[in-house]
Amino acid sequence: MKILRLLLGDQLNSNHSWFTKVDENVMYCMFEMRQETDYVTHHIQKVIGFFAAMRTFAKELEKANHKVIYLKINDPKNSQHLTQNLQNIFDEFQIENFEYQEPDEFRLDKQLSDFCKEINIKSKVFSTEHFYTEKQDLATFFSGKKQFLMENFYREMRKKHQILMVNNQPEGGIWNYDKSNRKKWNQEVLIPPAKNFDNDVSTIVQEIKIANIKTIGNINERYFEYPINRSQSLEQLNYFCEHLLIHFGDYQDAMHTDTVFLFHSKLSFAMNTKMISPKEIIEKVLQTYRENSAEIDISQVEGFIRQIIGWREYMRGMYWMLMPSYKTENFLDNKTKLPDFFWTGNTKMNCVKNAVKNSLENGYAHHIQRLMITGNFALLTQIHPDEIDAWYLGIYVDAIEWVQLPNTRGMSQFADGGKIATKPYISSGSYIQKMSNYCNSCSYNYKEKTTKNACPFNSLYWNFLDEKKAQLSSNFRMKMMYSLLNKMTASEIAAIQEKAHHIINNLDEY
Ligand code: FAD
Ligand code: SF4
C-alpha cells in the first residue's frame, strides 16, 4: 500500500501524530504553487516566509527519514495547481491512498473535498492537531443564540481548559482586564529591541523574481526577520515571555512613531503556519507568570491569553460557522474605491502613513493599527469590503483567510451587520491622539472638524454616522453617538458633509 500525504504551506506542525513513526509506505508532498501566490497580490515577505518555512520543514522531515516530494516554484514538474500536482504523483508512484489534513481555508477545503470525490483511490482527512477547538465547535456553542459574543466563548474556554481559574472562578476576581490594556506609550518604559532573525532568503527571492510573481512591499533578503522553523518560533516565544510579556497588556493598544512592534509578540506568522501551537504558547506564558508573579501583573497575562484562546479560536469558529456567504456580505452597502496610498503610504495623514509604512516595510502592523487606523479610515470612507479584504489578505505575513476575513469584514468593517462586533469600530481623531503620538507631527489638526487643516477622521466620523443612520441608529451601543449627532445644527451637519464628501471624492489628495 502506498500512501500519499499532503502538507499545505500552513501545516508545518512537526508535533503532528503523522510524524511519530517513519513508514516506508508513506510519502509526503509539498508544493510551492502559482495557485497560492496569485489568488491575491501578497507581500513579498509573506511569500518568502511561507516558502522558506516550507523548505525548512521538508528538509527536517527528510532528515528524520520521511520520504518527501517537494516541488519548488520553478520545478519543471510543477503544474502550479494543487490537484494536478497530486494527480501527477498518484500516476507516477501508483498511489493507493491519499491523506490530507483539514485545510483552514474554505477555498482549499472545497478544492480538496471535490477532488476526493473524483479520484478512484481512497482518501482520508485528518485534524491538523493545532487548535484548541474543532472547526464546528463554535457553531454548536452559539446554536440557538441571537448574538455570538466573543466574551461568552472566551469564558467558556477559560473554564474548559482551566486557564487562569481558581475553584472555577477567574483568577484575580475578574474575567477581563481590557480596561487596563489601554495605556498610551510615552517612552516611560523602554521597549526591548524587536526579536529579529537573520535568515538569508536571497535564493528564494531570486526564484520568485524568475517566476515573475507579482508582490508588494519590501524585504531585506539577507536578514529575513520572521521565524522560519520551529526552533526560531520557540526562540520568539521565549523572547516574548522574558522581555515583553511584563508590559504586553498595558500597551496593547498604544501606537507610536518610534516603534513598530511595541510589546507585541510577533508570533502570528509562526502560529498561523503551525510551527508552534497555541497550547504551548499559553503554557509557556502561564509558566512565566507563575515564576514571576511578583513582577508580572495578571492584567498583562490575561490580556495576552484572551487574544489566543479567545479572539483567535473565536475568529476561526466564526469563519467556519458563516462561510461561504460571509465573504460577500456588505451590510453598509459601501462602494468607495481603495485609495492608492494604501499601497504606497503616500498620504499627509500621519497615522495612516505610519500604519501603511509599517505594513509595507515589515508585512506587519499591530492590532490597533489594523483596526483603528487603516480599518477605521476605510470604514469611515466607506470602501467596498472586497477591496479591503484583498488588501488585508495580501499585505500581512500572518494573513490567511480564516483569520483575516472575520477580522476585516466583520470586526473592522461591520460588513456582517454585527455578527462579530457589537458596534462598528470607528473613531474620530481624538481617539488616535489619545493612543498615539501621530497627531503631534501631522499636517492636520485633530481638534478641527471642517477647517482646511482639520483632521479628516473628524468630518468623516460624523458624516458616517449621519449616512448610516438607517442601519446603525437602532443599535443600543450607538445610542450615545447618535444623541450627540442629533444635537448638531443643520448648518454644522452640512459643513461636515461637504468636508467629508470632498475627502471621499478626492482621497488621494489627503
Ligand atoms: P500580539 O498582539 O502579540 O497577539 C498575540 C496573538 O494573539 C497573535 O499572534 C494572534 O495569533 C492572536 N490574536 C490577537 N488578536 C487577534 C484577532 N483579532 N484575531 C485572531 N487572532 C488574534 N491576525 C492574523 O493572524 N492574521 C490576519 O490576517 C489578521 N488580520 C487582521 C485584520 C484586521 C483588520 C484586524 C483588526 C486584525 C487582524 N488580525 C490578524 C489580528 C491581529 O491584528 C494580529 O493577529 C496581530 O497583530 C499579530 O501580531 P502579534 O503576533 O504581534 O500579536
Ligand atoms: Fe491621524 Fe488626524 Fe491625528 Fe493626523 S491629526 S495623525 S490624520 S488622527
TrEMBL record:
Q: Which Pfam families match?
A: DPRP
This chain belongs to the protein called Cryptochrome/photolyase family protein
Q: Which UniProt keywords apply?
A: Lyase
Entries under InterPro entries matching the protein: Crypto/Photolyase_FAD-like_sf, PhrB-like, Rossmann-like_a/b/a_fold, UV-DNA_repair_photolyase
A single Gene Ontology molecular function, please? lyase activity
User: What SUPFAM superfamilies does this protein map onto?
Assistant: Cryptochrome/photolyase FAD-binding domain
